[in-house]
Write a structure and sequence with these properties.
Layout (H helix, E strand, L loop, with lengths): L4 E6 L3 H12 L4 E7 L2 H11 L3 E4 L8 H9 L8 E6 L5 H9 L3 E4 L4 H12 L7 H11 L17 H11 L4 H8 L3 H14 L5 H10 L5
Parallel strand pairs: 1-2, 1-3, 3-4, 4-5
Helix pairs in contact: 2-3, 3-4, 7-9, 7-10, 8-9
Pfam family, one: Response_reg
GO molecular function, one term: DNA binding
Organism: Pseudonocardia kunmingensis
């Protein structure tokens, strides 16, 4: 049998931590290996327990979830941990900053338990949990804030076709929508996405969206 996904739960509200832990531990393929109430403790526990996924709150004492995420999954981290941000703040600047810090996705705390479990499994599998419609809202709202300060389109190693695909990813298009827009197969789109992530040394589509906007590749 496959070993269960090891989960660390970090939230400063004890009732929410207990609720998450109960929901997660009830699943045969998931296991809560630790709980904590602030970002500093999350970083320390992750170093000792080596979880597969950290479920991370945003606003917490001692060290907030954004900085904790950056320490666990940000650029330059030798052994990054997958972080799923669970927040009460819908598409606000905290969510955007958490994604920039290295989070693999986010959910709202009022999401049903099934979505939390799906989110943990999705992130653990190496995929990003950021629905296309959410991507559109997120980048649309913060496009003015995330305009590039340095490099531009000419600094990217991507081919013209790969740039097309990246721009569509940044527009929140799914693989099926990209395939339809470019009149190519779904498998071809998956190949392009894989190449883009590899060339740009990005972990997932969330990072690709942030990269595109930071580099001014989308209007």
């Amino acid at each position: 049998m496959t070993a269960p996904v090891r989960v660390l739960v970090c939230d400063d509200q004890a009732l929410i931590r207990a609720g998450f832990a109960t929901i997660i531990d009830a699943q045969p393929d998931l296991e809560v290996v630790g709980e904590c109430g602030d970002g500093r403790a999350a970083v320390e526990l992750a170093g000792r327990l080596h979880p597969d996924v950290v479920v991370m709150d945003v606003r917490m004492p001692v060290l907030d979830g954004i900085e904790a995420t950056r320490l666990l999954a940000g650029a330059g981290v030798a052994s990054p941990v997958k972080v799923l941000v669970v927040t009460t703040f819908n598409l606000d600047e905290y969510v955007y900053e958490a994604l920039r810090a290295g989070a693999s996705g986010f959910l709202l705390k009022d999401a049903p338990p099934a979505q939390l479990l799906h989110g943990i499994r999705t992130v653990a599998a190496g995929a990003a949990l950021l629905a296309p419609e959410v991507t559109r809202q997120l980048v649309g709202r913060y496009a003015a804030r995330i305009r590039p300060q340095e490099s531009g389109p000419n600094d990217t190693p991507l081919t013209p076709r790969e740039l097309e695909v990246l721009r569509l990813i940044a527009d929140g298009r799914s693989n099926s929508e990209i395939a339809a827009a470019l009149v190519i197969s779904h498998e071809t789109v998956k190949t392009y996405v894989s190449r883009i992530l590899t060339k740009l040394d990005l972990r997932d589509r969330v990072q690709a969206v942030v990269y595109a906007y930071r580099r001014g590749l989308v209007a």
